[in-house]
Design a protein that fits this description.
By secondary structure, the chain is mostly helical. Helix content is 73%, strand content 0%.
Length: 267
């Protein structure tokens, strides 16, 4: 389970890095060739596809954490892993399908890229209504998780580590900031809609989410696992050396090459 999370974190991180690099080149080519050229359209389609893949991976990781912990100790490892993968995968596929229908559908809602200031562009109500609904859903989910420790019935389901609660608090704050920014972009009109605090909140929250979510997931769940694995490996090496007689020889270093401590040294 933990190795699967580790590989998924790396895959999502590489996808986000590739998307960021290509976005830089896309912006430069968009200014040089014009926003309506065929090359600009193909670049936008490629970037939207990368956005969808990255968002799907991030959603898969987020939902799988909550689903796995919500099962508690009622299932074994294989059964819990199967159920977690099924539920999280279904949620990620559903979200990707909705986003793909908005981006590539008839109305062409630019969920990820700048779409201009027209009725169907970047200031469209559909774009920010979607991000408002999604952000509120995830912020409420993490707020609910943070309330679980106060419940005598459910608090034993969560790991008793401060890193986990810092992880949930950070993601709750990021999704809440995105929700507030999206709400401002829906309500505010005129010049302040284009340059006001709504874009600032959405931009900062998005940068933190895409840049630090895999690291936060590793710190909260995987770091302790790999530290325990390294300790178990060291203990296994020590046991093998002890069984082979490396630490025998009368209280000294002895055992290797016939020397040390109270042992004899043969020449």
């Amino acid at each position: 389970m933990m190795w699967a999370y580790y590989c998924a974190c790396w895959a999502v991180s590489l996808l986000a890095l590739l998307r960021a690099v290509l976005l830089t080149f896309y912006v430069e080519s968009n200014f040089s060739s014009g926003p309506s050229s065929s090359s600009s359209t193909s670049h936008a389609n490629l970037l939207n596809a990368l956005w969808l893949a990255t968002r799907g991976g991030l959603t898969l990781l987020e939902v799988s954490v909550v689903v796995f912990l919500a099962q508690g100790y009622t299932l074994g490892g294989a059964a819990a892993l199967t159920r977690t993968g099924a539920i999280a995968g279904a949620a990620a596929l559903l979200e990707s399908a909705v986003e793909a229908s908005l981006v590539f559908g008839r109305h062409h809602v630019p969920l990820f890229l700048w779409g201009g200031a027209g009725a169907g562009g970047d200031l469209s109500s559909a774009k920010w209504a979607y991000w408002l609904a999604r952000s509120l859903l995830f912020a409420s989910l993490y707020a609910l998780v943070l309330r679980v420790p106060r419940s005598p019935r459910w608090r034993d389901l969560l790991p008793a580590t401060p890193a986990f609660f810092r992880y949930c608090s950070a993601l709750c704050g990021v999704h809440s900031a995105t929700a507030v920014g999206s709400l401002l972009l829906l309500l505010v009109e005129g010049h302040w809609r284009m340059s006001g605090p709504g874009y600032c909140l959405v931009g900062v929250a998005g940068g933190l989410y895409y840049g630090f979510f895999p690291a936060a997931l590793y710190s909260a769940f995987l770091a302790a696992f790999f530290a325990d694995s390294a300790l178990d490996l060291d203990l296994a090496y020590y046991s093998e050396m002890r069984d082979a007689g490396y630490f025998e020889g009368g209280g000294g270093v002895g055992g290797i090459g016939g020397g040390g401590g109270g042992g004899e040294v043969g020449f």
